[in-house]
């Protein structure tokens, strides 16, 4: 995750999710965290010497993790989750999360009266 929390108006979140289609991802953005879930499906067929085979027959070892996953990423600043932009290209997911405006301190007038002694 890359984040420049104190220098910009945005929190930038970059994630590697190679080998997945956009439809395989579920992204939920809250004010203080991002939840990402999905499923990386194993290849069923592959080509070996021009022959189509099941992956179990064609490969000795694979370095990919397959299956369902879920991750919750806490954010370093509160964000405005209704104005998020997302880009998914070449297995990299980029979320641009605009920071929410800091709540201004309200000035409250307090009426002071002396207590009778």
From TrEMBL:
<dbReference type="InterPro" id="IPR002068">
    <property type="entry name" value="A-crystallin/Hsp20_dom"/>
</dbReference>
<feature type="domain" description="SHSP">
    <location>
        <begin position="1"/>
        <end position="113"/>
    </location>
</feature>
<protein>
    <submittedName>
        <fullName>Hsp20/alpha crystallin family protein</fullName>
    </submittedName>
</protein>
<dbReference type="InterPro" id="IPR031107">
    <property type="entry name" value="Small_HSP"/>
</dbReference>
<dbReference type="InterPro" id="IPR008978">
    <property type="entry name" value="HSP20-like_chaperone"/>
</dbReference>
<dbReference type="Pfam" id="PF00011">
    <property type="entry name" value="HSP20"/>
</dbReference>
<comment type="similarity">
    <text>Belongs to the small heat shock protein (HSP20) family.</text>
</comment>
